[in-house]
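Standup notes
- DV: blocked on the single-chain target, sequence here:
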Amino acid sequence: MAAAMRPSPTQSPLAPLRARDWAGAALVLAALIWAYAPAERGGFIWDDSGHLTAPELRSTEGLGRIWFELGATQQYYPLLHTAFWVEHRWWGDNPLGYHWANLLLHAGAAFLAWQVLRRLAVPGAGLAAALFALHPVQVESVAWISEQKNTLSAIFYLGALLAYLRFDDSRRRAWYAFALVLFLAGLCSKTVTATLPAALLVIFWWKRGRLDPRGDVLPLLPFFLLGAGAGLLTAWFERALIGAQGADFALTFAQRATLGGRALWFYAGRLLWPAHLSFVYPRWDLPPGGSWGWPLTAVAVVVALWRGRKRARGPLAAVLLFAGTLFPVLGFFNVYPFVYSFVADHFQYLASLALLALAAAGLAGLRASFSPVGRFLSGVLMALLPAGLALLTWQQCRAYSNVAVLYRATLIQNPSAWLAHDNLGLLYAAVGRAPEARMHFAATVALEPDYFGAYNNLGILLFQSGQTSAAAAQFQAALRLRPADPETHNNLGNVLYFAGDFMGATRQYAEALRLRPDYPEARANLQLALRQLDRVANPH
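- DV (later): unblocked, structure below
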């Protein structure tokens, strides 16, 4: 690319890190290790078992399936699942190793964020990285093993950003190729990294006040195309294979616009005031005609910042980066967690960096205007801010020290969290505490009458206690919601078998086998039921 087409640089030459810089980084790392200590002792939670490497994928052949077979893993993030594959070889089923891996990846992401902000000459870059590292909204991404997709993809996203900034300065093709490779790695870890090329355009506009179509936009076209392809694949995967479709996702445009605006304010509020954080937030009721105050006020903020861009472009750039990185989960695309809640802390893991950097830059600029004494005192206060966040993070991590503690803490913050009730019911059922399990399954049914799993779980408990008629009613209710579920047909067959209705049991087992031909339990049960029918027909 000719030098004549080269836009003005986006970054300042990086000064070498001084001893005080390394000391500050070491202090943040120590604070991270301390703050996350309660969660490091925790085990696997909720869908961790669906993300970690399944037994049939632990071989070399299984690694190939991770990359080339859609549906072999819960989500098509092959580099993430390759990382899990390697980690399983290192520490097997010990959750401690996964927790430490996630924590170190998060620390690495914070370090890269620091270097990106330094290269962009953002004031308070070190403070911004410390806020990103220690803010309690990150706990869900770091303490929940399944969310290694966030920390791993952030490494590649920020690495690609840093490499592309080097390319933008030097126009060396090696840096361009390196950035593209890291971007692809990010897409293979989590497709939120598809927002990177748009983020780069915002950064270039912020630094230069304009965009050069040939120098800024054209080199990013391959990034946009790869990101769009990955995004479409993920959207299809969520809808077709994970189940992000149906009544829970049938939202009007007005509802989606309302959701997008309200979610933006929600996430910004949690960054500003990180209180009442929850593993599952209440699922908002969205009026069919929408509630336009939420999106209109968000748009009004953008318009006001646009009008003030001649005085300062930084605030508008930060807001655009924040909203743009969140865009895939603002409700305009279906993602499966919307079944439980429209918002989640882990959704804003990467996006939070933009507003935290804006806050740190504002504090640094304010401090520079003070007298020497004021600068000293404000410096002390600014140092206490990450310390306070570390304390809040430690408190939040205590909820992740045990899966039962996590669900009980969730119900304190969100009594309508039927997911927490259902999972507590499963935990109590597994240790033989049937009354508590039944109470939580009943609460799940009351809160979410359309969730078939709770009826199935309640039916199993009733069957185990000898209440066959009540158990059959629960299984039938589950089948009305999901008639093609083979396990429920098999469960109903068991109830009918023990009630002496061998013909009815035979029909249920046969239907389970029709739905899942490789279902050995249903096949064995069908053979038993057929023998009983034969004995009834031929008693001698």
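- Follow-up: The longest helix spans residues 372-397.
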